[in-house]
Amino acid sequence: MREKILTFIExxxxxxxxxxxxxxxxxEIAVANELAEMEKENIICGYHTxxxxxxxxxxxxxALIEVRVTPQRxxxxxxxxxxxxxxxxxxxxxxxxxGYDLMVTxxxxxxxxxxxxxxxxxxTLDTVLSTATHFILKKYKxxxxxxxxxxxxxxxxxxx
Length: 160
Hints:
Elements: H1 2-11, H2 17-24, H3 28-40, E1 61-69, H4 78-85, E2 90-95, E3 102-108, H5 111-122, E4 128-135, E5 141-142, E6 145-146
Antiparallel strand pairs: 1-3, 1-4, 2-3, 5-6
Organism: Anaerosacchariphilus polymeriproducens
Protein name: Lrp/AsnC family transcriptional regulator
GO molecular function: sequence-specific DNA binding
């Protein structure tokens, strides 16, 4: 039942408990208890709302920063990742494969804010060897949701 609950709430965290229990064919209390248990076990770590900030008046810039670091003896990448994710500007940190070690997602009010964060805070960390900054210019799909759905032209084709 856990996997089914997780599959449904990953796409729609606002689904009604009663509706979810009907879909799963189980008692509503059982679903509520299972959700509470998964929250307690940190399987469910939070609930988020996906917002298209481009359609608001809020100035927000998102950047992906690739970071190459020197892992610390006996601790690997965990300590440096923790130092980075504790900055309020940082929205996510991932250990990745390839030419870089970490992928850091940042949000700021401007390109300058992001650049200043990278140069003043991120690049100055003693274990950081290099960074590469990529600014998000447009989001087409985010968390499985298409951000800019095209309206289909439903007019009838008229031939002369």
